[in-house]
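Margin note: ligand = S-adenosylmethionine.
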Amino acid sequence: MQRYFIKERITDEITIRDANQVHHIRNVMRRQKGDQAVVCDDQGHCFYMKIERIESDSVVFSKGQALPKLNRKFHVTLAQSLIRKDHFELACQKATELGVDTIIPIETERTIIKLKDPQVEKKLTRWQAIAQEASEQSQRNTVSKIAPLMHLSALDFSLYDTVLIAYENEKTVTLKTALSVVNKDSKLLLIVGPEGGFTAAEIAFLERHGAQTVSLGPRILRSETAAIYLLCALSYELEMNRS
Ligand code: SAM
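Resulting structure:
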């Protein structure tokens, strides 16, 4: 069933006025009075809702049954280095499908896009739109958040219980070993490098802040593949594999 996210609290009757959502309901899905959709607020409360009225610029829904709240305990943030446009967009979409809570686009020594890029605001808006669409498609209860672009050195490590860096030169510690000691209710930060990888100085900086380098296997993965790998493994180990 089609899913829409709104910012306000869901009451007995709500009116969607967002032009994209109204267009989607009216013209793409061609919904009619009496049809149903799922509507979620920004706290992850989702309800079956029935369409009562469709106007040219709004859709009115009445509230039905609540959907069960997902009770996943761990939180995962992906610090994804800026990479080529379509690859970053793919990382946003797939990371959202795989359950990431927040994506922080990061600038590193070897990223090509830099903070002063006048396109940054437009890019953040575009990535958030991709995250919203992927959240709807994958029937999440919340929309993954795209945080403001920041430099690697500005990451706030105090917010996380575990920080893992995907590092191709790590030959001893595998992701599996690192995840085996992570609690199911942890706050995790996963850091993925750009096309050219992290410099030794960056790895030393991250390690000084308690981050653990992990190997994702013997092959060199593209940056976006590394992000997908990390989140697949995390879901397998923490969501699917432990009671
Ligand atoms: N430095 C390398 C180079 O230029 O040959 C490769 C960088 S790789 C394309 C991009 C990012 O993906 C890396 O910075 C790392 O975060 C991650 N990555 C790729 N393969 C990996 C592996 N086998 N183990 C851990 N991380 C990996």
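The two ends are 29 Å apart (CA to CA).
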